[in-house]
Amino acid sequence: xxxxxxRLSRATTINSLINAFGxxxxxxxxxxxxxxxxxxAISGGTSYLYYFSSPDLVHLDQIKExxxxxxxxxxxxxxxxxxxxxxxxxxxxxxxxxxxxxxKKLGLDVASCILTRYTPISDPDxxxxxxxxxxxxxxxxxxxxxxxxxxxxxxxxxxxIEKLRYTPNMKKHIGMIAGGTGITxxxxxxxxxLKNPHDNTKVSLLYAxxxxxxxxxxxxxxxxxxxxxxxxxxxxxx
Length: 238
What we know:
Elongation Factor Tu (Ef-tu), domain 3; CBR-like; 34% helix; alpha/beta; 3 domains
Protein backbone atom coordinates (compact mmCIF):
# COMPACT_ATOMS: atom_id res chain seq x y z
CA UNK A 1 0.00 0.00 0.00
CA UNK A 2 2.84 2.41 0.82
CA UNK A 3 4.39 1.73 -2.58
CA UNK A 4 1.03 2.50 -4.21
CA UNK A 5 0.82 5.93 -2.57
CA UNK A 6 4.40 6.69 -3.60
CA ARG A 7 3.47 5.90 -7.20
CA LEU A 8 0.32 7.96 -6.87
CA SER A 9 2.24 10.96 -5.55
CA ARG A 10 4.60 10.81 -8.54
CA ALA A 11 1.75 10.40 -11.05
CA THR A 12 -0.75 12.96 -9.74
CA THR A 13 -0.36 16.54 -8.51
CA ILE A 14 -2.70 18.30 -6.14
CA ASN A 15 -3.41 20.93 -8.79
CA SER A 16 -4.66 18.31 -11.21
CA LEU A 17 -7.01 16.98 -8.52
CA ILE A 18 -8.24 20.49 -7.73
CA ASN A 19 -8.80 21.33 -11.37
CA ALA A 20 -10.65 18.09 -11.91
CA PHE A 21 -13.15 19.17 -9.25
CA GLY A 22 -13.31 22.75 -10.48
CA UNK A 23 -11.52 24.32 -7.47
CA UNK A 24 -8.82 26.90 -6.90
CA UNK A 25 -5.53 26.20 -5.12
CA UNK A 26 -5.73 29.18 -2.76
CA UNK A 27 -9.33 28.79 -1.63
CA UNK A 28 -8.89 25.59 0.36
CA UNK A 29 -12.11 24.25 -1.17
CA UNK A 30 -13.24 23.09 -4.58
CA UNK A 31 -16.19 24.69 -6.32
CA UNK A 32 -18.24 21.78 -4.97
CA UNK A 33 -17.42 22.64 -1.36
CA UNK A 34 -15.17 19.61 -0.83
CA UNK A 35 -11.92 20.21 1.13
CA UNK A 36 -8.70 19.48 -0.74
CA UNK A 37 -7.81 16.71 1.71
CA UNK A 38 -11.12 14.99 0.97
CA UNK A 39 -10.51 15.38 -2.75
CA UNK A 40 -7.14 13.74 -2.45
CA ALA A 41 -8.64 10.86 -0.47
CA ILE A 42 -11.51 10.38 -2.92
CA SER A 43 -9.23 10.62 -5.91
CA GLY A 44 -6.72 8.27 -4.30
CA GLY A 45 -9.46 5.72 -3.77
CA THR A 46 -10.53 6.02 -7.39
CA SER A 47 -6.96 5.68 -8.58
CA TYR A 48 -6.50 2.66 -6.34
CA LEU A 49 -9.47 0.93 -7.96
CA TYR A 50 -8.33 1.84 -11.43
CA TYR A 51 -4.70 0.91 -10.82
CA PHE A 52 -5.48 -2.60 -9.62
CA SER A 53 -8.66 -3.32 -11.61
CA SER A 54 -8.29 -1.50 -14.91
CA PRO A 55 -7.17 -4.58 -16.92
CA ASP A 56 -10.29 -6.49 -15.79
CA LEU A 57 -12.55 -3.49 -16.38
CA VAL A 58 -11.16 -2.99 -19.86
CA HIS A 59 -11.66 -6.68 -20.57
CA LEU A 60 -15.30 -6.50 -19.42
CA ASP A 61 -15.88 -3.42 -21.55
CA GLN A 62 -14.45 -5.25 -24.56
CA ILE A 63 -16.77 -8.21 -23.93
CA LYS A 64 -19.83 -5.94 -23.62
CA GLU A 65 -18.85 -4.07 -26.78
CA UNK A 66 -18.39 -7.32 -28.69
CA UNK A 67 -21.77 -8.61 -27.48
CA UNK A 68 -23.51 -5.37 -28.45
CA UNK A 69 -22.12 -5.65 -31.96
CA UNK A 70 -23.77 -9.06 -32.35
CA UNK A 71 -27.31 -7.92 -31.48
CA UNK A 72 -29.69 -5.71 -33.42
CA UNK A 73 -31.60 -4.09 -30.55
CA UNK A 74 -30.42 -1.29 -28.29
CA UNK A 75 -32.40 -0.45 -25.12
CA UNK A 76 -31.16 3.16 -25.19
CA UNK A 77 -31.45 3.96 -28.88
CA UNK A 78 -34.17 3.97 -31.53
CA UNK A 79 -33.17 1.79 -34.48
CA UNK A 80 -34.92 1.50 -37.84
CA UNK A 81 -36.05 -1.94 -39.00
CA UNK A 82 -37.46 -2.47 -42.48
CA UNK A 83 -40.67 -4.36 -43.06
CA UNK A 84 -39.85 -7.47 -45.06
CA UNK A 85 -43.29 -9.02 -45.49
CA UNK A 86 -46.79 -9.34 -44.03
CA UNK A 87 -49.25 -12.20 -43.74
CA UNK A 88 -52.89 -12.36 -42.60
CA UNK A 89 -53.36 -14.63 -39.59
CA UNK A 90 -57.05 -14.07 -38.87
CA UNK A 91 -59.86 -11.81 -40.01
CA UNK A 92 -58.43 -8.92 -37.97
CA UNK A 93 -54.82 -9.89 -37.21
CA UNK A 94 -51.65 -9.69 -39.26
CA UNK A 95 -48.11 -10.97 -38.97
CA UNK A 96 -45.35 -8.43 -39.67
CA UNK A 97 -41.79 -9.58 -40.38
CA UNK A 98 -39.01 -7.01 -39.98
CA UNK A 99 -35.49 -7.67 -41.19
CA UNK A 100 -32.02 -6.70 -40.03
CA UNK A 101 -28.43 -7.77 -40.66
CA UNK A 102 -28.49 -11.60 -40.87
CA UNK A 103 -25.23 -11.98 -38.94
CA LYS A 104 -26.94 -10.56 -35.83
CA LYS A 105 -29.52 -11.79 -33.37
CA LEU A 106 -32.37 -9.61 -32.17
CA GLY A 107 -31.05 -9.56 -28.59
CA LEU A 108 -34.38 -10.23 -26.90
CA ASP A 109 -34.63 -11.89 -23.51
CA VAL A 110 -37.44 -14.33 -22.67
CA ALA A 111 -39.91 -12.82 -22.03
CA SER A 112 -39.47 -9.19 -22.98
CA CYS A 113 -41.07 -6.79 -25.43
CA ILE A 114 -39.91 -3.90 -27.58
CA LEU A 115 -41.06 -0.29 -27.57
CA THR A 116 -44.18 -0.03 -29.70
CA ARG A 117 -45.38 -2.32 -26.86
CA TYR A 118 -45.49 -5.52 -28.87
CA THR A 119 -43.86 -8.82 -27.98
CA PRO A 120 -42.18 -10.56 -30.92
CA ILE A 121 -43.34 -14.13 -31.48
CA SER A 122 -40.18 -15.16 -33.36
CA ASP A 123 -37.43 -17.15 -31.68
CA PRO A 124 -35.09 -14.74 -29.81
CA ASP A 125 -32.17 -16.65 -31.36
CA UNK A 126 -33.38 -16.05 -34.93
CA UNK A 127 -30.90 -14.19 -37.09
CA UNK A 128 -31.84 -11.38 -39.43
CA UNK A 129 -35.55 -10.95 -38.67
CA UNK A 130 -38.27 -10.71 -36.02
CA UNK A 131 -42.04 -11.22 -36.23
CA UNK A 132 -44.83 -9.19 -34.65
CA UNK A 133 -48.40 -10.47 -34.41
CA UNK A 134 -50.74 -7.48 -34.29
CA UNK A 135 -54.52 -7.28 -34.04
CA UNK A 136 -55.64 -4.40 -36.27
CA UNK A 137 -58.41 -2.37 -34.66
CA UNK A 138 -60.50 0.13 -36.66
CA UNK A 139 -59.73 2.89 -34.14
CA UNK A 140 -56.26 1.70 -33.16
CA UNK A 141 -53.73 4.35 -34.18
CA UNK A 142 -50.67 2.16 -33.81
CA UNK A 143 -52.20 -0.97 -35.32
CA UNK A 144 -53.62 1.03 -38.24
CA UNK A 145 -50.17 2.51 -38.81
CA UNK A 146 -48.68 -0.97 -39.00
CA UNK A 147 -51.46 -2.10 -41.33
CA UNK A 148 -50.60 0.75 -43.70
CA UNK A 149 -46.93 -0.28 -43.98
CA UNK A 150 -45.58 -1.77 -47.19
CA UNK A 151 -42.49 -3.99 -47.58
CA UNK A 152 -39.44 -1.76 -47.44
CA UNK A 153 -41.02 0.75 -45.06
CA UNK A 154 -39.14 1.25 -41.79
CA UNK A 155 -40.24 1.36 -38.16
CA UNK A 156 -38.14 2.68 -35.27
CA UNK A 157 -37.76 0.18 -32.44
CA UNK A 158 -36.06 0.29 -29.03
CA UNK A 159 -35.58 -2.55 -26.58
CA UNK A 160 -35.64 -5.03 -25.08
CA ILE A 161 -38.08 -4.01 -22.35
CA GLU A 162 -38.00 -6.79 -19.79
CA LYS A 163 -41.31 -8.22 -18.55
CA LEU A 164 -40.01 -11.43 -17.05
CA ARG A 165 -36.54 -12.90 -17.19
CA TYR A 166 -37.31 -16.57 -17.61
CA THR A 167 -34.73 -19.14 -16.62
CA PRO A 168 -35.06 -22.90 -17.22
CA ASN A 169 -36.77 -24.85 -14.42
CA MET A 170 -37.44 -21.69 -12.42
CA LYS A 171 -40.89 -23.21 -11.62
CA LYS A 172 -42.15 -26.79 -11.71
CA HIS A 173 -45.49 -25.82 -13.23
CA ILE A 174 -46.56 -22.53 -14.84
CA GLY A 175 -50.20 -21.54 -15.34
CA MET A 176 -50.94 -19.04 -18.09
CA ILE A 177 -54.09 -17.07 -18.94
CA ALA A 178 -54.13 -15.12 -22.20
CA GLY A 179 -56.63 -13.40 -24.47
CA GLY A 180 -56.23 -12.29 -28.09
CA THR A 181 -52.75 -11.04 -28.89
CA GLY A 182 -51.87 -11.55 -25.23
CA ILE A 183 -50.73 -14.96 -26.47
CA THR A 184 -47.47 -13.43 -27.74
CA UNK A 185 -45.48 -13.24 -24.45
CA UNK A 186 -46.92 -16.63 -23.44
CA UNK A 187 -45.76 -18.19 -26.69
CA UNK A 188 -42.30 -16.73 -26.18
CA UNK A 189 -41.98 -18.50 -22.81
CA UNK A 190 -43.61 -21.72 -24.06
CA UNK A 191 -41.21 -22.05 -26.98
CA UNK A 192 -38.21 -21.30 -24.76
CA UNK A 193 -39.28 -24.18 -22.47
CA LEU A 194 -40.10 -26.67 -25.20
CA LYS A 195 -36.92 -26.21 -27.23
CA ASN A 196 -34.74 -26.87 -24.19
CA PRO A 197 -34.49 -30.64 -23.53
CA HIS A 198 -33.18 -29.93 -20.01
CA ASP A 199 -36.18 -27.78 -19.05
CA ASN A 200 -38.79 -29.96 -17.30
CA THR A 201 -41.28 -27.18 -16.61
CA LYS A 202 -44.95 -28.05 -17.14
CA VAL A 203 -47.20 -25.41 -18.73
CA SER A 204 -50.99 -25.10 -18.64
CA LEU A 205 -52.42 -22.38 -20.90
CA LEU A 206 -55.99 -21.06 -20.80
CA TYR A 207 -56.49 -19.10 -24.01
CA ALA A 208 -59.67 -16.98 -24.26
CA UNK A 209 -61.08 -15.34 -27.38
CA UNK A 210 -64.33 -13.80 -28.59
CA UNK A 211 -64.93 -16.46 -31.26
CA UNK A 212 -63.24 -19.42 -32.92
CA UNK A 213 -62.09 -17.11 -35.72
CA UNK A 214 -60.22 -14.96 -33.18
CA UNK A 215 -57.99 -17.78 -31.92
CA UNK A 216 -54.52 -16.84 -33.10
CA UNK A 217 -51.85 -19.38 -34.04
CA UNK A 218 -54.18 -22.28 -33.11
CA UNK A 219 -52.57 -24.70 -35.55
CA UNK A 220 -49.11 -23.96 -34.17
CA UNK A 221 -50.30 -24.24 -30.57
CA UNK A 222 -52.06 -27.55 -31.28
CA UNK A 223 -48.90 -28.99 -32.84
CA UNK A 224 -46.79 -27.91 -29.87
CA UNK A 225 -49.28 -29.46 -27.43
CA UNK A 226 -49.49 -32.70 -29.43
CA UNK A 227 -45.72 -33.13 -29.55
CA UNK A 228 -44.87 -32.04 -26.00
CA UNK A 229 -46.60 -33.78 -23.07
CA UNK A 230 -45.57 -31.02 -20.66
CA UNK A 231 -47.83 -28.51 -22.47
CA UNK A 232 -51.60 -28.46 -21.99
CA UNK A 233 -53.81 -25.91 -23.80
CA UNK A 234 -57.44 -25.09 -23.02
CA UNK A 235 -59.46 -22.85 -25.34
CA UNK A 236 -62.51 -20.84 -24.36
CA UNK A 237 -64.68 -18.54 -26.50
CA UNK A 238 -67.67 -16.31 -25.94
